[in-house]
Amino acid sequence: MIAETLFAKNQEAVALLKLKPGDIVVRITEHEFDNELRQIEQEFVILSIQANGRVFFKGGNRQSAWLIQLQKKWPNDSVSLRMGLCK
């Protein structure tokens, strides 16, 4: 059930974000440090997107993320679109 829900969310992200190899994305991860929740933003260029929604990045030593973890950077625009499970 969880896997099916994640697959559906990733497919929704594929359609909404219209990501393709060469697009620039931002991955936002949250970590707790000294009892504070901190966000880390990392910018990547997409190398490939698997059918299951896993995105691999150029020069990232096989770094990857699920589509629902990414924001697309739009050219000449500061607005990003993010797909998330809880948003």
Question: What does this protein structure show overall?
Answer:
The chain is an alpha+beta fold and 87 residues long. The chain has a single domain, classed as SH3 type barrels, CATH 2.30.30. 18% of the residues lie in helices and 44% in strands. It has one helix and six strands. It has a six-stranded antiparallel sheet, with helices on one face. Strand 1 and strand 2 form a beta hairpin. The protein is globular and about 40 Å long. The two termini are 20 Å apart.
Provide a brief overview of the structure.
The protein is of the alpha+beta class.
Question: What labels describe this entry?
Answer:
about 90 residues, alpha+beta, SH3 type barrels, 1 helix, about 20% helix, about 45% strand, globular, disordered C terminus
Strand order of the largest sheet: 4-3-2-1-5-6
Radius of gyration: 13 Å
Structural class of the secondary elements?
alpha+beta
Structural domain count? 1
The residue fraction in helices comes out at 10-25%
Biggest sheet, open or closed, and with what strands and sense? 6 strands, antiparallel
Number of helices: 1
- Mean pLDDT score, rounded? 80
How many beta strands in the DSSP annotation?
6
What is the fold named in CATH at topology level? SH3 type barrels
Give the overall form. globular
Fold topology:
Layout: H1 2-17, E1 24-33, E2 36-49, E3 54-57, E4 64-66, E5 70-73, E6 80-82
Antiparallel strand pairs: 1-2, 1-5, 2-3, 3-4, 5-6
